[in-house]
Automatic annotation (TrEMBL):
Catalysis: reaction(s): N-acetyl-L-glutamate + ATP = N-acetyl-L-glutamyl 5-phosphate + ADP
Single GO MF annotation: acetylglutamate kinase activity
Gene responsible for this protein: argB
Protein name per the record: Acetylglutamate kinase
Residue ranges of domain Aspartate/glutamate/uridylate kinase in the record: 1-235
Keywords associated with the record: Amino-acid biosynthesis, Arginine biosynthesis, ATP-binding, Cytoplasm, Kinase, Nucleotide-binding, Transferase
Main localization (coarse): cytoplasm
Function: Catalyzes the ATP-dependent phosphorylation of N-acetyl-L-glutamate.
Residues in the signal sequence: none
SUPFAM superfamilies: Carbamate kinase-like
Similarity comment: family membership: Belongs to the acetylglutamate kinase family. ArgB subfamily.
Chain positions of site Transition state stabilizer: 6, 217
Length: 260
């Protein structure tokens, strides 16, 4: 099976959570699956920007990205975070190749048109999954950071959830899993929803039941499901050990997002 796994939040920051995720990914590959990892690094970027004297601003869960912020994002995402994940998988004996969306023109971006303007924030306009498939043929794991090259030659900051969905669609993944620092999508009563239909997402957003970073995440879930990805699940990072059982047994963690 083909898996795309998105890592972000505390899952990248907390050593025990990161180790559990890496071990689960390595086990998936040992079991004969093909796995691609897409990652963010927003906490690390915010920390680096603060050290440089820049404040971070977010609108509807998306970071306002001027040219300087974009350059720092490229350094953090494609550098320290990406190569750290490659090293973590390598320490388990699992070969991994770190990429940005610009490498091999893997993903092409266009500027996201919003009001107010978000700067160098993009959305995926085209993809070439040959590079992912080539790494899979060598039993490797592509580790892809959420930056993509625009047709104008500029790098754009891509929301990592949207990047993961675009990756899953491009390589015709069987499953897209978001490993997060939350227990799942919560309903109006504050309880985690075990199942969520994409038809419910707009109403929950309108009622402010879902806000902030969960908005682009659920938008990405919807896009993936409507474009051929069979299963989409939001899973807490502490439950990463259940990844190898995701498609063969009942998993009692997180939220399964469905078409209907």
């Amino acid at each position: 099976m083909k898996y795309v796994i998105k890592l972000g939040g505390a899952g990248l920051e907390t050593p025990t959570l990161l180790d559990g995720s890496m071990r689960a990914i390595a086990e998936l590959v040992r079991d004969g699956n093909q796995v691609a990892v897409v990652h963010g690094g927003g906490l690390q970027l915010t920390r680096t920007l603060k050290a440089l004297g820049k404040q971070s601003e977010f609108i509807d869960g998306l970071r306002v990205t001027d040219a300087e912020t974009r350059d720092v994002a490229l350094m953090v995402f494609a550098g320290r975070v990406n190569k750290g994940l490659v090293a973590a998988l390598g320490s388990l004996g699992q070969p991994a190749i770190g990429l940005s969306g610009g490498d091999g023109l893997l993903f092409r971006a266009r500027k996201k048109r919003t009001a107010p303007d978000l700067g160098y924030v993009g959305e995926i306009a085209a993809s070439d999954p040959r590079w992912i498939e080539a790494i899979w043929q060598m039993n490797g794991v592509p580790v892809i950071c959420s930056m993509a090259l625009g047709f104008d030659g500029e790098y754009y900051n891509i929301n990592a959830d949207e990047m993961a969905a675009a990756c899953a669609v491009a390589c015709r993944a069987d499953a897209l899993v978001f490993l997060t620092d939350v227990s799942g999508v919560k309903g109006a009563n504050g309880e985690v929803l075990r199942w969520l239909s994409i038809d419910q997402i707009a109403e929950m957003a309108k009622s402010a039941i879902i806000t902030g970073g969960m908005l682009p995440k659920l938008g990405a879930c919807r896009e993936a499901l409507l474009n051929g990805v069979k299963r989409v699940r939001i899973l807490p990072a502490e439950a990463a050990g259940s990844l190898p059982d995701l498609c063969s047994a009942r998993v009692a963690h997180g939220t399964e997002v469905m078409v209907a």
